[in-house]
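Ligand-bound model needed. zinc ion.
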Amino acid sequence: MKRWLLIFGALLVIGVAVFLTTPPATKRRVEQVDCISRMYGTLCAAKLWSEDNGGRLPPDFISMTNELSWPKILFCPADHLHQPMTNWATFTANNCSYEIVTPGIYKTNTNVVFLRCKIHGYVGYSDGRVLDDSGKVLVKGRL
Ligand SMILES: [Zn+2]
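Prediction:
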């Protein structure tokens, strides 16, 4: 429960900060900001998972069901090809908008992409950084 509150609080802070620093919101921009927040939340969950697993990040999303709590976080709001997952029983890698690029890397390995949005091409690192496909930093790592 405490872990979930930590993740939720971090998501809220990041989401509000990103939203307030952007021009007037369009639907596309709102989807981008939501995607970035979901990636950051997933990276937080992966780091929490690593604390109980020898410092390694998870090999897949199913391993993190206790840390993520909510499968919908793995659904990019700009993904119009799939339906959001409502529970873990319906989760598959094929209906997930994100992919783990390098499963099981050590959390100290901050120079290797861990997470990627299949829709936006954003990439996430174990330190919480999220970059767009041009390399622009969208979220500075602070995990
Ligand atoms: Zn996305």
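DSSP finds three helices and five strands in the chain.
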